């Protein structure tokens, strides 16, 4: 299979094409879907606002909502934000008790696995 990005009338589509082998008799269907939107810029946090404990994205996805703000006190397991990945809503919990030092992702932004979503002190 090969992946291509094709632009039609200004809209980019990701297309996957399967190659037919010698025994292939029926044509294979390929479904075109719009390309993923560009990554939204992350809010810039001052260097001194970063906390000691980082909360990383466990998988790529889109931030649906942010449940806390910088300065909020959280307990271990409290929900910091909701991450949508593969049509499922995933709760991102606080890994330990602390205070939110920074929020590094906005609602609506896309993130990659390992991106820092927030920091705690």
Report a brief summary of the structure.
With 121 residues, this protein is mainly beta. Helix content is 0%, strand content 45%. It has no helices and eleven strands.
Span of the ends, CA to CA: 47 Å
Q: What low-confidence regions span 5 or more consecutive residues with pLDDT below 50?
A: 44-48
Summed over residues and divided by their number, the pLDDT gives a mean of 82
Radius of gyration: 20 Å
> What is the helical fraction, as a range of percent?
under 10%
The largest sheet is:
4 strands, antiparallel
Descriptive key words:
mainly beta, four-stranded antiparallel sheet, 11 strands
Please provide a written account of the structure:
- By secondary structure, the chain is mainly β.
- Helix content is 0%, strand content 45%.
- The protein has a 4-stranded antiparallel sheet, with no helix packed on it.
- A hairpin with a 2-residue loop joins strand 7 and strand 8.
- The radius of gyration is 20 Å and the shape is elongated.
């Amino acid at each position: 299979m090969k992946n291509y990005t094709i632009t039609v009338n200004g809209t980019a589509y990701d297309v996957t094409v399967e190659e037919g082998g010698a025994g292939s008799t029926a044509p294979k269907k390929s479904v075109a879907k719009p390309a993923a939107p560009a990554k939204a810029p992350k809010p810039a946090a001052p260097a001194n606002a970063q906390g000691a404990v980082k909360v990383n994205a466990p998988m790529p996805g889109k931030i649906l909502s942010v449940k806390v703000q910088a300065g909020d006190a959280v307990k271990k397991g409290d929900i910091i934000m909701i991450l949508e990945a593969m049509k499922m809503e995933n709760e991102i919990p606080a890994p330990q008790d602390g205070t939110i030092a920074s929020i590094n992702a906005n609602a609506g932004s896309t993130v990659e696995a390992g991106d820092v979503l927030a920091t705690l002190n």
